[in-house]
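Input/output pair, single chain:
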Amino acid sequence: MSTQDVGDRFRLLLYERRLSRYRQPAITLAVLLLGLWYPVSINYLSWPSPTDAPWLMAGSLVSLALWLFTLLGPRLAYAQPREDHLRLQTPIYRLKISYRRIHNTRPIDFAKMFPPPMVRRGDRWLLRPFFGATALGVDVQGWPLSPTVLRLFFNRFFFAVDQPSFVLLVENWMALSNQLSSHMDAWRGTRRERPRGPGFDAADILRDE
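Output:
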């Protein structure tokens, strides 16, 4: 695959916003636990017990790992047009949406799709910066996986409420739309140019199904 077949990576802002919420608490907890571990480990404090020192160290390491994840995780969450599919990458899961499945893209007013008064109070902090933003809607002919499975890896605000469509909040939705349209047109053009004749085999038929 050449570099021309791969589009830019557009960071998924919902992931970045959510992970940033845990960044300060994680590093604060790591420092506190590590600061408590040292005097406990040298028997300077009578409580907690010196036998708890390994647990304090383990807790500080886990908190530090979470802090590092909040720094690196946003870089691992992006949308990227590829040669024959749109890639949606999360820190723990990669979803490939074939261009065969995508039938339209559209700008979405995020506040109209998810009206602020209808958003649960616990989600308002997450969505507050995006109520004035425009997202890219990627309309699909049916979900690539069961909606139940998709919701295990994607926040519910990744899914439009009016029809099967992915709602992608990125910094430059127009650039993503242009690159996605360009890659889809190139892919469809390649399919049209593929020769048909008595020489094609079963593999060709299956590839076009």
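Helices lie at 13-20, 23-41, 53-72, 110-113, 121-127, 147-153, 173-193, 202-208. Strands lie at 10-11, 78-81, 85-89, 94-98, 102-109, 134-140, 165-168.
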